[in-house]
Each structure stands twice: as structure tokens, then as C-alpha cells.
């Protein structure tokens, strides 16, 4: 059975399913995923746009993992570790439910630098979207990407997202308001 979010049951934690894709899976973060988080914490961008701590030590990486589990308890959204064929974590992808009451969810993702350049983010995004489109309360999935981040917006387009426009000064990144492309995918087109 597909676990569904129930906006009418605010005290019931979300249930994170395990999702399978070609040569990857998406699952809950585990304690042995710290290497992936620490590697991502050495990336220039990831600590600026996520809660991955810059140059995270072991304890900070474990705290990041605990926060991901807490997102389910607080019904903030579904935070998946992306894992390779050996079940080693290579990144994160999240489906965030702040605007669930409007039928919208937003998506964010990163790969550890050593896993980039092989189309794995696009594969993970496609699997996430296939599952998200089965959630009856969602009509629209959104992504926001800075124009310079071509690897990210190409990843979105490969998974079927459509660019709707440029949101000017949409988000503060590193202390500066940044323009973002708004991408969307309508769940009805996938059902
Ligand atoms: C965004 C991210 C997940 C993409 O994963 P990736 O493995 O680097 O992406 P890929 O190498 O598969 O590239 C995806 C596409 O972008 C293209 N691309 C990659 N780097 C590029 C670059 N510097 N300039 C132009 N195109 C680029 C690839 O050719 C590929 O195109 P295709 O789909 O037409 O074949 C990864 O770069 C990352 O984690 N970045 C840091 C965090 C981040 O930016 N998250 C997204 C925030 S919106």
C-alpha cells in the first residue's frame, strides 16, 4: 500500500517508503551514511542551500541524519537518501510539504561530488516524481533552480519538469537575493 500523507491527521507521522529505480534506490538515511554527508559538506553549494553543515564532522553529520527523520515526525516532508546499487548513500532528495494544503510540494536534491556526472540525479528525480504523483493530495510538484545551475535545471527537464519563468530575487543564498527559475510538473499529466 502506498503511504499517503493525511493533512487531516496532523499528529500522525509520515511513513517513508523505499523507492527503487534503475541501479539506485531511495530510502531513509542511516547512521552509516555519514561519509556522503561529510563529502557534500565540502561542496561549495550544498551547505548554502541545504542544512548539510559545511565541513561537517561525524557528530554534525549524524545530527543532520536525525533532522531528516524528524521531518517525517513533523510532517515537513519526505527526506530520502539516494543510494547506489550497493546501497551506499550518494545524495539526498526531498519532497517538501509546506504548501500541501494547496496541492503543491517542492523538491530539492543534491549528489555527493564523487557521484555526479552520470545522470543519477535525473534518475532519482524521475523515481521520486512517479511516486509523488500517486499521492492524491498533490497536483503540482515544484523546483527552484538558479539560472547558472545548468546541471540542475537539465536534471529537472530530463525528468519532465517545465520551466515557467524567472522568479526575481526569489531566495536568499549566501546572504544575497538570487533569481530562480521556477519549474513544475503537474501530477495529472503522469497519472
Ligand atoms: C544538481 C546535481 C544534483 C546534478 O547532478 P549531476 O550528476 O551533476 O548532473 P549530470 O552530470 O547528470 O548532468 C545533468 C545534465 O546537465 C548537464 N551538465 C552537467 N554539468 C553541466 C555544466 N557545468 N554546464 C552545462 N551543463 C551541464 C549534463 O550534460 C546533463 O545534461 P543532459 O541531461 O542533457 O545529458 C549536482 O550537480 C549537485 O548535487 N549539485 C549541487 C547541489 C545542487 O545544485 N542541487 C540542486 C539545487 S536546485
UniProtKB/TrEMBL annotation:
GO molecular function: protein N-terminal-serine acetyltransferase activity; protein-N-terminal-alanine acetyltransferase activity
Pfam families xrefs: Acetyltransf_3 (PF13302)
Superkingdom of the source species: Bacteria
Keywords, alphabetical: Transferase
GO cellular component, one term: cytoplasm
Domain N-acetyltransferase as annotated: residue spans: 24-187
PROSITE patterns listed in its UniProt record: GNAT
PANTHER family: ACETYLTRANSFERASE, RIBOSOMAL-PROTEIN-SERINE ACETYLTRANSFERASE
The protein's name: Protein N-acetyltransferase, RimJ/RimL family
Source organism phylogeny: Bacteria, Bacillati, Actinomycetota, Actinomycetes, Micrococcales
Amino acid at each position: 500500500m502506498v503511504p499517503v500523507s493525511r493533512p487531516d491527521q496532523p499528529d500522525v507521522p509520515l511513513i517513508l517508503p523505499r523507492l527503487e529505480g534503475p541501479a539506485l534506490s531511495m530510502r531513509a538515511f542511516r547512521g552509516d551514511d555519514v561519509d556522503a554527508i561529510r563529502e557534500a559538506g565540502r561542496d561549495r553549494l550544498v551547505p548554502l542551500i541545504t542544512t548539510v553543515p559545511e565541513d561537517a564532522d561525524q557528530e554534525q553529520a549524524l545530527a543532520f541524519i536525525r533532522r531528516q527523520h524528524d521531518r517525517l515526525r513533523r510532517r515537513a516532508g519526505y527526506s530520502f537518501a539516494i543510494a547506489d546499487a550497493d546501497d551506499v548513500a550518494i545524495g539526498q532528495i526531498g519532497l517538501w510539504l509546506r504548501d500541501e494544503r494547496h496541492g503543491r510540494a517542492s523538491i530539492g536534491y543534491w549528489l555527493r561530488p564523487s557521484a555526479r556526472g552520470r545522470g543519477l540525479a535525473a534518475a532519482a528525480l524521475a523515481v521520486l516524481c512517479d511516486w509523488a504523483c500517486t499521492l492524491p493530495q498533490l497536483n503540482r510538484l515544484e523546483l527552484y533552480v538558479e539560472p547558472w545551475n545548468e546541471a540542475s535545471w537539465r536534471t529537472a527537464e530530463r525528468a519532465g519538469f517545465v520551466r515557467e519563468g524567472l522568479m526575481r530575487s526569489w531566495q536568499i543564498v549566501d546572504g544575497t537575493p538570487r533569481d530562480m527559475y521556477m519549474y513544475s510538473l503537474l501530477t495529472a499529466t503522469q497519472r
